[in-house]
User: What shape does this take?
Amino acid sequence: MRAEDSSLWNEPLEAQKLMRERQGLEEGIAAVKGLTQALDDNVGLIQLGEEEGDESVVAEAEASIRSMRGEAKARQIETLLSGEADANDSYLEIHAGAGGTESQDWASMLLRMYTRWAERRRFKVEVLEVHDGEEAGIKSATLLIKGHNAYGWMKTESGVHRLVRISPYDSNARRHTSFASVWVYPVIDDTIEIDVSESDVRIDTYRSSGSGGQHVNTTDSAVRITHLATGIAVACQAERSQHKNKAKAWEMLRSRLYEEELKKREAVANATEASKSDIGWGHQIRSYVLQPYQLVKDLRTGVESTSPSSVLDGDLDDFMEASLSQRIEGGAGEVVADID
Assistant: This one.
């Protein structure tokens, strides 16, 4: 077995790749075994309950089996996440659209939604950058989400998200429509080479935003790197050290450039270009309607939920599974928002 060969570590990059593959396979096998064992146990309980005439035992076991369907479906989707970066950690960017406070508040709601989704899956979430709004909400934010298949699960979430609600900031209680965009791209590792030099970019430093008082940052430790050829810009202010923020921003930029290359490859393979558009009408991938009725609808797959509160609390698996299935099976390509 290659993983047990002591000479494997003579090639560290190959060893790291192999060990990640091994970990993923072990986790998948353990999950299938766990589901199989749970199914057998519950079938046994149903048989026992029927023999003894205990309807409560039968009902409990049947309910347990029904609850296993969701996990089984998720595991089935995971077996199809075979892209070269699907198993990697993921960056998530959120940008408020036009509309001031309304859109900035909506962006903060999306930030919470994805954080809650990641926590449900026991992924680790790190906040790399947050640009607060003037009155409420956020103008932009960047998260690092760590976990097996984090990018694979999240990659179809890129696009414009639309909210319809009675505005809490409108004294006349009128209905408002707000937009925010989401951009997902993978964390790349040492096995993926992206050639970019300092002459290809512009590096800006600025003062990190955050809470006041003793926690206020009085130095220009935040770093923004802009790739001149593509206009792609990334920023990091998570660390107090400018050096550490710069190193993290370089990692993010290489990941964004790699994700751009993945998009190009996919466009060629599907003979269609992924569309890029403004953050506004006609370009959304999902609508969240809170007024005059309650509905969340994915405009690519048609999947709906009549419980927006659950969705905004991180219940996104049905939407992700449907869009992943569509993408894997060669369905319509997703709409990708243009992030400036």
User: Anything to note?
Assistant: The mean pLDDT is 81.
